[in-house]
Write a structure and sequence with these properties.
By secondary structure, the chain is of the alpha+beta class. It contains 10 helices and 11 strands.
Length: about 280
């Protein structure tokens, strides 16, 4: 096998609480995350001599600053492997959207290279490598539903979500993660991080209504202060029938929780009719 095609799923933060700044310049967080069906495709192929990245989105760098490129280099160096790798990314996840596209791509590269080179790596080995690349990357090694603590690398698996659907809307611009966390620090929004226990109870019992009522993101205030449209989109999502709505990650993507695919699709149809980018997705 010289080539591997991998699904690189997006994520949503059902809860994101940002805590105090650590000595390593990261913030303590607690977050409940789920992978969703919106995905990029990542193709990893053995090559001679170097690492290369191609992408069908002009917004994605294809040089050494790309986190997928960094993942490939880390893998080759860690296992003293000869040769190189070609990476092709077919984007569907918006860049800088708060849905973790870059981190997901990096995790896909690590998993794909392990298969291509026939290395039977343990879960802990993959998690350890991924943590060197970024805070969100370890979550994408396995995906599903998990609670993340520390700077995001300490993961505890949770029960899967009940059958539910998400309507997603993006206003068409990117928000820098480092900027959002920096602003939260400046205006004093950071505190001891802890997600609402009722959200965890809702997940445990498969209670869509309780889950929807408890979703929350402590970075929303920062982003809405600077980009009021994000707040307007959240209000619009609720008006379109969402049981609950929140921003994912550092934004600016807003998601709404719906019981049925049809109701989520109706909401997205109305959002896209306004010239916005929207998607329907379900938990993966």
């Amino acid at each position: 096998m010289t080539e591997k095609l991998l699904a690189s799923f997006a994520k949503l933060n059902l809860c994101l609480e940002v805590g105090l700044l650590r000595s390593d310049s990261y913030h303590e967080i607690e977050s409940v995350l789920t992978t969703i069906s919106l995905k990029d495709d990542v193709i990893v192929k053995k090559a001679l001599g170097k690492i290369s990245v191609r992408c069908d989105s002009e917004s994605v760098p294809v040089d050494k600053t790309n986190i997928a490129w960094k993942a490939a280099r880390l893998f080759l160096e860690k296992f003293s492997l000869k040769g190189g790798v070609e990476i092709e990314i077919r984007k569907k996840i918006p860049v800088g959207s708060g849905m973790g596209g870059g981190s997901s791509n990096a995790a896909a590269v690590l998993k794909g290279m392990a298969e291509l080179w026939g290395l039977n790596l343990s879960r802990q080995m993959l998690l350890g490598l991924s943590a060197l690349l970024g805070s969100d990357v370890p979550f994408f090694v396995e995906g599903g539903v998990a609670i993340a603590r520390g700077r995001g690398e300490k993961l505890s698996r949770l029960a899967g979500l009940p059958e539910m659907w998400f309507a997603l809307v993006n206003p068409g611009f990117a928000v820098s993660t480092s900027w959002a966390y920096g602003e939260a620090e400046k205006i004093g929004l950071t505190r001891n991080a802890g997600c609402n226990n009722m959200l965890l109870i809702g997940i445990e019992h498969g209670d869509i209504g309780l889950i929807a009522r408890c979703i929350h993101n402590s970075l929303e205030d920062v982003v809405v202060r600077n980009y009021p449209i994000v707040g307007h989109l959240k209000e619009l999502m609720i008006s379109l029938g969402a049981l609950g709505s929140a921003m994912s990650g550092s934004g600016p993507t807003i998601f709404g929780v719906f019981k049925t695919q049809e109701s989520a699709e109706e909401a997205v149809d109305k959002l896209t009719a306004l010239g916005l980018s929207g998607w329907v997705a379900k938990p993966v």
